[in-house]
Specification:
The protein is of the alpha/beta class and about 425 residues long. The chain is built from ten helices and 29 strands. The protein is elongated and about 70 Å long. One of its GO terms (biological process) is glycogen biosynthetic process.
Amino acid sequence: MAPREERLSRKTVAFVLAGGRGSRLRELTDRRVKPAVYFGGKSRIIDFALSNALNSGIRRMALATQYKAHSLIRHVQRGWNFFRAERNEFIDILPASQRYDESMWYRGTADAVAQNIDIIDSYGIEYVLILAGDHIYKMDYELMIRHHVEAGADVTVGCLTVPRAEASAFGVMAVDGSDVITSFLEKPKDPPGTPDDPEVTLASMGIYVFRWDFLRDLLIRDMQDSNSSHDFGNDLIPAIVRDGKAQAHRFSDSCVRGEDEPVYWRDVGTVDAFWRANIDLTDFNPELNLWDRDWPIWTYSESVPPAKFIHDEPDRRGTAVSSLVSGGCIISGTEIRQSLLFTQVHTNSYASLEGAVALPYVNVARHARLTNVVIDRGVRIPEGLVVGEDPEEDAKWFRVTEGGVTLITQDMLDRREASK
């Protein structure tokens, strides 16, 4: 019998960078960091990176936090508390704690790792997987780590294949015929093509694999460089491309999907992108399969009763068509179409929602009509409010995006009420 192949994930720690505000999400990140923003009816954005790591066999994780981290930390403590320390499993939460200098918070993505070198040393691991905590995708990291080892690389960079016309918004790379990176460019005006297709470009996903001993030495040198911005994409990766071996790993080689499902990755960093990705889940066959029992997205689930639909009169019927309605919701005489409702959303008679993404604990009063909206957590929609039919009127009180989506927060409604 052939010996069983050891999973490299058992020798790896996933270091998740979860400190960025995500200012393009506007008021959705006024009270929470971007990775803590809700997604998909019951999850948070951070759950995708953490679930990928867990499903890949990685049971040692570190989470670097900084901006308004309370919501994120509380979610992780409640939803990810099943690791067993006696089996050497854990999620360490590593806030920016000025460990090296009382004037220094995390100065960049590489610095967030560098300031925790002593903690990572204590883990006794061989490989470090650096992850961004703010993207929506499903990926088997074991395949990427194995590619890194087999290629003998100093760093392996997770890459998306994007059209050249769209690649200027990314950090991109030129590669040779073996996908060894020959140059790494940050948001170039003329992105390079690939050897197999000149019309597409490889764009960085912000996912990196290193041997820990190699990265450790690199971080120590970078901390001493006063000219460095202490960032993986700006400083460390270009230096490795120049002086060592950097390998590209194509996302399509490790994306978790069904036989007929497309490669799926989304940066939900704008209100329009956030709304679109959530509404896409209401499609008959959504591109992101949240129903996959072989690769579940783990999260914290509140103990709530099932969703409830009440009233059955011609103009007062609780219905939902092409929609996702989470537990604890009460749809009382409301018509809901192509919408996504998070936990404990309550709607009242004669209201209507179409293209609505309602975060937890939203209450919609009678006769409200809401179209193409994102409603922040805990908002109380007043009786008779109409949004989504008159963009100029909406823009007086709410955030209306270029794509025609209206973001509603309680502060905006309070200002509107106070002006009357």
